[in-house]
Amino acid sequence: MNTVFILMAKYGARAIVPIDVVCRDYFPHLEVDKLLRKITTGNIALPLVRMEKSQKTAKGVHIADLALYIDQRREAARKECEQLTGVRRG
């Protein structure tokens, strides 16, 4: 299963997913401004795409970067589960 293809189906083949949509779908515990702060300080390793150089421009996340972030979080969760249970999963 390829995460990029799943996200393409979810977001209608958009290359860039608006930050408010990313926040709603994957960080519902955060407000958009808090998510932006965490991204810009490096607390959340997710590249932010700005459509212009202006601070007020539309911001989003490239679908491939979002897929990579999701896959990395999954891998971290798998490693944690293996450490806790001692069971390796395929």
Regions with little confidence, pLDDT below 50 for 5+ residues: none
Q: What number is the mean pLDDT?
A: 93
Strand tally: 3
**SSE string:** HEHHEEH
Folded structure, characterized:
This protein has 90 residues and is mainly α. Helices cover 53% and strands 10% of the residues. The chain has 4 helices and 3 strands, in the order H-E-H-H-E-E-H.
List descriptors:
mainly alpha; three-stranded antiparallel beta sheet; 3 strands
Would you kindly provide a brief summary of this structure?
With 90 residues, the chain is mainly alpha-helical.
Question: What topology emerges from the helices and strands here?
Answer:
Layout: H1 3-10, E1 16-18, H2 19-26, H3 32-40, E2 49-50, E3 59-62, H4 63-85
Antiparallel strand pairs: 1-3, 2-3
Helix pairs in contact: 1-4
